[in-house]
Amino acid sequence: MQDTPDAPSETGHSLDPDDWSAFRKRAHSMLDAAIDHVESARDRPVWTPVPDDIKAAIAEPLPMDPQGTDKVCEDLLTQVLPYATGNTHPRFSGWVHGSGAPGGIIAEAMASAMNSNLGGRDHGANYIEHQVINWMKTMFDFPSTSSGLVVSGTSIATVIALSAARYAKADYDIRKQGVRTDKRRLVGYASSEAHSCIARAFDMLGLGIDALRTVPVNDAYEMDIPALRRAIEKDLAAGHQPFCVVGSPATVNTGAIDDLNAISEVCQEHDLWFHVDGAFGAIAAMNDNLKPRFTGIERADSIAFDFHKWVHVQYDAGCVLIRREDLHRKAFTLRPEYLTAAPRGLAGGNPWFCEYGPELSRGFRALKVWFHLKEHGMHKILQKVEDNCQQAVYLGALVEANPHLELLTPVSLNICCFRFVAPAMDDAALNRLNEEIVMRLQESGVAAPSTTKLNGQLAIRVNITNHRVTKSDFDLLVKEAVKLGKECTV
Ligand SMILES: Cc1ncc(COP(=O)(O)O)c(C=O)c1O
């Protein structure tokens, strides 16, 4: 039975446009605006704070009546588009943000047109996500029988991986019974430099943040392996049950690389789950020239990593891979009658993705990943990773050559941490000064590094996961940082 296109529903017209050709024209002009925005990234300030009048305009009451496509598009162009985070800009180097790529505009528009729900069933979008996961299995040398999920980012990927670890290692049915206090306490290990998403996962899984033991690091900020062994022995002696170790192929503060091989050996000796927090480091490990530094990653029981960081897929897109599909599925499967798979038809396609994570409704994130990987190919993406590492070394050399700057730790991978120094200033004063420099750099729109603290010293932290940046951008950053430092100390 065919509806006539403009047939009114019971209470009025559908939400489709009254005039498709006007909608099409508007949509095309918006597409142009989106492309212009990316193409001209370098010409804008890195960051533009949202002015008060725009904040006030956004804070309108809930619209009860239609404002129409044109009006909303105008609002979008004036109230939203100019005030992005700034990570499309070559001189954005704060936190760990990827740059995105223009092709994502096409992929996201198509995903939106399809409006697929990848919780399950048998439809085309699922095959794309399966393919992305299969590519990742091949890339990380995981067996074809392993499993995975495209998710919003490493934080939720970590929850999923550690959920599987918790299920696999508990000697009772932890899904049914919850975490039991009359049993040996499940404890895990990560270095003091590990990302907070691991502690958050311990919290969310009911294990408790204290159950994540903090292993000290060596001078290079890498996990101290003898200290890991001692921590495990101590917990065993106290009657606890060690169940996992999390290794970082690149820590968020400095890009330090844990000895993944050594961690995997400790895990093997003690029958522990070896999880890798590969948010951005896992991708570096796939570059042939960098690979030897990450030996052991291929032995992980699970890897969490992001496409939206060093692969430059638009936000948000991450992934979890789990070596044992059965343990992954058993940690999440719950199939009531209304979600039963059929042998054929739309309700086919078993197993469904909803059996591998906490979400039933899932968007088509995998499409932009698939599009991006096909469009650019891994060689080019991994070459940009290597370029960024060389740029970090270049910046480190600029810092060391400048008498006003101090390198706070040798460059390990793609992160350079330094500070402006002035005579007769103690660490507390220098911390305030360098925080001020970073805020002024951001407010001026010239550059957007972030800050962190290393041994109590506040660092200007430049994280390079940017495919648009060139060495001359670091010349400018150093020049501006020194200029601001001098301005603040006169
Ligand atoms: C090492 C590391 N792990 C985990 C995360 C969390 O990743 P996401 O923000 O994608 O959840 C980050 C984020 O920067 C990170 O750098």
Please outline the helices and strands.
Elements: H1 20-39, H2 52-58, H3 69-80, E1 92-93, H4 103-114, H5 124-139, E2 147-151, H6 154-169, H7 174-177, E3 186-191, H8 196-204, E4 212-215, H9 225-237, E5 241-247, H10 260-270, E6 273-277, H11 281-284, E7 302-306, E8 318-322, H12 325-330, H13 365-401, E9 405-407, E10 415-420, H14 427-444, E11 448-454, E12 457-463, H15 471-489
Parallel strand pairs: 1-11, 3-4, 3-5, 5-6, 6-7
Antiparallel strand pairs: 2-8, 7-8, 9-10, 10-12, 11-12
Helix pairs in contact: 1-3, 4-13, 5-13, 6-8, 13-15, 14-15
The site of pyridoxal-5'-phosphate has 14 residues, from α6.
Summarize the structure.
The protein has 490 residues and is α/β, with parallel strands linked by helices. The protein is 42% helix and 13% strand. The chain folds into two domains: 20-47 and 85-101 and 378-490, Aspartate Aminotransferase, domain 1 (Alpha-Beta Complex), CATH 3.90.1150.170; 117-363, Aspartate Aminotransferase, domain 2 (3-Layer(aba) Sandwich).
Please tell me about this protein's structure:
- This protein has 490 residues and is α/β, with parallel strands linked by helices.
- The protein has two domains: 20-47 and 85-101 and 378-490, Alpha-Beta Complex (Aspartate Aminotransferase, domain 1), CATH 3.90.1150.170; 117-363, Aspartate Aminotransferase, domain 2.
- The protein is built from 15 helices and twelve strands.
- The strands form two sheets. A seven-stranded mixed sheet has the order 2-8-7-6-5-3-4, sandwiched between helices. A five-stranded mixed sheet has the order 1-11-12-10-9.
- α8 (196-204) links the parallel β3 (186-191) and β4 (212-215).
- The radius of gyration is 25 Å and the shape is globular.
- The N and C termini lie far apart (79 Å).
- Pyridoxal-5'-phosphate (PLP) binds next to α6.
